[in-house]
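Worked Example 4.2. Read the sequence first, then its structure tokens.
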Amino acid sequence: MNSLFESDIQVFLEKAEERGVVEEAELDTLAFEHDLDADELGAVRTELAAREVEITPPAETTNVDAGVSNARESAVLVTTDSLTLFMNEVGRHDLLTAAEEVGLAK
């Protein structure tokens, strides 16, 4: 197996597979904590897809303290690098299926 998927990242993948779902914020945190570049994060996303793990947007919280905590985390992950911004945006959208591509082409 790829050296990328060792130790903490492997544990993350296994836990995500058990749950069947992972939030986008968890991926951002993983990338930040392990200093993953866009290609490495893409490999993690590919592995999650292979394990049929759904990547969801962060759940909205009604707790004010949780909102402050999320705002702090978001501030840490803010970037002005255009490639990173693009990759983050692209990663939020599901890929089209073959049938959807054909339907859009018509």
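Now turn to a second chain, presented in exactly the same format:
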Amino acid sequence: GNLWVALIGSGKIGCISPMGGLKLTIDLPIPLVSSVMFGGPNLDVLFATSISNSGNRQDAHPQSGLVFEISGLTSTGLAETAFTGKIPL
């Protein structure tokens, strides 16, 4: 599958193909996108966090620091595997 990443400093989310190429970018209205993950009942909503003040990077945009929701993508996330508290050897 693809790897979805925050392209921090660019105001974009990137979708990286299994071959390593940039397949798609999504523009957000803020420059400091910090992380992404799929959620929702069907794992078909992409959530993106953003930075307003991390201590070493700041952005004064009024929407900085918010969580953004992107729906309508053709991709879905994978369910997490619950940690059992044991590490297999």
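Notes for the reader: The two ends are 27 Å apart (CA to CA). The chain has a mean pLDDT of 91.
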